[in-house]
Amino acid sequence: MKPELAPALKQAVDRLYAVFSGYRAPTLCLNVCLGCCMDESLEKEMRQLPLRQITARHFYEYNCSAKDVPQPAHEIKYLLPRMLELLADGAELHHSMECYLGRLGNCEAGAFSAEEYEAIEVFALAYFAARLSQHWWQSGEGHAGDVAFEFLLMFDIGGVDLRPLLDYWMKDESTAATLHYVNAGFYDFWQAQCIKNAFAEDRPVFLEVMTNWLTEENHRRTFANRILRLEMYKLEQTPTCYYGSRITPQDMAEAVFDSITY
Fold it and tell me: What does pTM read for this prediction?
């Protein structure tokens, strides 16, 4: 059975539907390539089905299709509540998570009203908070990597201000949030002292924001103290392969601690 959304996340989704309720389905073809990217019947269904009946398969082909820059804002505004609802449910909306919100980020500056942008920001914060509240080292479910930085890059590509999300992470003293810091930091930052993600290579502002946040002295001290409080022996310790070596979550925590207390 699919788990219920966190209350704040459900409220954020409901707010999106309310704020964007005035937009109607396009009558003409969506901004997609029907020649080789998207099935014509799926494109037609996206315009004719009730909004909440559009599936992840529809959005996967829609998001992976060739598209114009800038994007048609009214089309995005109509589809956005359902797309973000599916995101909240954990649906796969593109072959790369970082690109889920690419169409949103490619709308022209000023295309969204203050109320519309606020609804998107509220969703982003609720989504990120919900993801930080769970980690596979506690549940024993999931995969060896960590996607906290991918979530942040996804929202950055979508044009969302990351500062409220990073501020929330700093204030979240939960074990899961600290585990995300350890897991993501080990794989995607501290080894090379930079974010290692191909989709971030042409986003210098994102790289600067993340590097400054991760290396700021008070932030490092705060997370170092939280790592010291972790009871790693109680958590999942299945080793994973990292550049030919077998490494456990305990090893990762120790490596990140050493990196942030240099």
Answer: 0.95
